[in-house]
Design brief:
Layout (H helix, E strand, L loop, with lengths): L2 H22 L14 H8 L5 E4 L5 H9 L6 H13 L4 H8 L6 E6 L2 H9 L4 E6 L5 E12 L6 E4 L5 E4 L1 H9 L4 E6 L10 H13 L3 H14 L4 H13 L3 H14 L4 H14 L3 H14 L4 H13 L3 H13 L6 H17 L3 H14 L7 H10 L4
Parallel strand pairs: 1-4
Antiparallel strand pairs: 2-7, 3-4, 3-7, 4-5, 5-6
Length: 392
């Protein structure tokens, strides 16, 4: 018998003896496991000098303030419910404002800005929502504020706070407080009121808003203007290409994706989207595979990119490779919207059928149907399912 086994036997004998003694004495209380420290306590112990941020207001007041500032006719209760619904999903108040305010007719855009950009938006008569650090040291207090005016002579900054008070800051004091939160700013205004020199990202955001509300002609005009002002911006070209693809304008989309890759041949979304488009159109499959592979090398954990590459490998009959990439995409698919998750799952199930693994395909289909009982499978997958038999 090894020493380890002997020790183990001795311990067991000791535990039995202890149990018998407890019974003889009328029972023993079970030993209490030590209480585990909370995550906050562990962080406090590990980082005793870390600064704590306290938000003095929850930011909901901003929605009503902006709606009233732009004299909108809106249902206050419905707006609050919209905000609450987004917060309940786990989104931050900043994200909730971006989603809820368009429902009352306000275009929204958030970014990290600069002093000149802040001034330009105010000159365009658009108030700017910011976050300000109100104290320093181990307990930092963050407050939302709306910048409503800047005195060009004195340089003072007028802000509106949650309690309705107007607070004046000197330019230096404002910049110091604003920089505490990386100069974050939120714009929310009627789309026709956006009259200032915009960044390309702002223009793209405004284009999406106009598409959303059915102002396609206005969106097209903004897209043409954005391209003229920034013709070598790979992000802009890719975004406009994606917009064209979603609207069924495939020739335009292909041209824009290729222009994006000429501007930046390591732009993963452009490479991925062009690969997808070539695969859908029956274009050069080898070119599509090369583009998709490039995208996976640039962003190896992106489930959309892995899905594109896996699907194209399947089109090329390389099902084992397809399966490996689609499995990686499925592992990461929880971050995707519902429709995209379903697409990844269906593609993987088809790859399983094509690699003689019908039991795995059935498992994927069952997982999809548990969450989506009315799921309609793609024709190719349904045909494989019919051949393999029932998969309930």
């Amino acid at each position: 018998m090894s020493t380890t086994a002997s020790a183990s036997f001795a311990k067991r004998v000791g535990r039995v003896a202890c149990g018998l003694l407890c019974l003889a004495l009328g029972g023993c209380a079970a030993p209490q496991a030590p209480e585990k420290p909370s995550a906050r306590a562990l962080l406090d112990e590990r980082f005793p000098h870390r600064a704590r941020t306290v938000r003095e207001d929850d930011g909901r007041w901003i929605a009503d303030w902006l709606a009233n500032r732009w004299a909108l006719a809106y249902d206050r209760t419905m707006l609050r419910r919209h905000l609450d619904a987004e917060l309940k999903k786990g989104y931050s108040i900043e994200e909730a404002l971006l989603v809820a305010l368009p429902s009352v007719g306000l275009w929204t855009h958030a970014a990290y800005g600069t002093w000149p950009e802040l001034v330009a938006r105010l000159q365009g008569e658009a108030p700017v929502v910011v976050q300000l650090g109100m104290t320093s040291g181990p307990r930092r207090v963050r407050r939302f504020a709306v910048v409503t005016a800047i005195d060009p002579i004195e340089g003072s900054v007028r802000t509106r706070m949650q309690d309705g008070a107007d607070v004046l800051f000197s330019k230096d004091e404002f910049l110091a407080r604003w920089s505490s939160y990386r100069n974050w700013m939120l714009i929310a205004c009627p789309p026709e009121s956006a009259r200032w020199p915009m960044r390309s990202a702002e223009r793209m955001s405004l284009i999406r808003y106009n598409d959303l509300v059915g102002r396609v002609d206005a969106a097209d005009a903004l897209a043409a203007e954005a391209l003229e002002l920034d013709p070598s911006n790979a992000d802009l070209l890719t975004a406009l290409g994606t917009r064209a693809l979603l609207r069924g304008r495939k020739d335009e989309a292909e041209a824009l994706f290729r222009a994006a890759l000429r501007a930046d041949d390591r732009h993963a979304p452009a490479a991925n989207n062009l690969a997808y488009l070539l695969g859908e159109r029956g274009g050069d499959l080898e070119e599509a595979l090369a583009l998709a592979r490039r995208a996976t090398l640039l962003e190896p954990s992106n489930p959309r990119i892995l899905h594109t590459y896996g699907s194209l490998l399947g089109k090329a009959g390389r099902w084992e490779e397809s399966r490996l990439n689609l499995e990686r995409a499925w592992e990461r698919a929880n971050v995707l919207p519902l429709a995209a998750r379903i697409e990844v799952g269906c593609s993987l199930a088809l790859a399983y059928y094509s690699t003689a693994s019908p039991h795995l395909a059935c498992g994927i289909i069952q997982a999809l149907r548990r969450k989506h009982p009315d799921l309609q499978l793609p024709k190719a997958l349904q045909a494989q399912l019919d051949l393999a038999g029932d998969c309930l």
